[in-house]
User: What shape does this take?
Amino acid sequence: MTNPVFVEIQNSIDSSEVLLFMKGTPLFPQCGFSARVVQILKHAGVPFASVNVLENPEIRDGIKEFSNWPTIPQLYVKGEFVGGCDIVTEMYQSGELTALLTEKGVTQHAA
Assistant: This one.
């Protein structure tokens, strides 16, 4: 991995159990899709870190290439790409997200 943007992305992913690449911040999301994933994670009681892709155009473009996923937000759990808003929403509604978090050993608190 020689692309410095990819190295920065990987370092961010490696530094957090649960990481959300999003537009804006958890307190002030800048798009509805990012806001929805933040709400799901909060409702599930999952502590998470975030990267505001609007602060860095190289990260904003680079994360799409890095994950081979065309949209933001993007959720990573223990280094594994989970998906974007639609996938996270479906997984949450079906119970798969909770199962994945439990399987990966991510601490969840009652919301």
Remarks:
- Residues 43 and 110 are 8 Å apart (CA to CA).
- The radius of gyration is 13 Å.
- Residues 32-43 form the longest helix (12 residues).
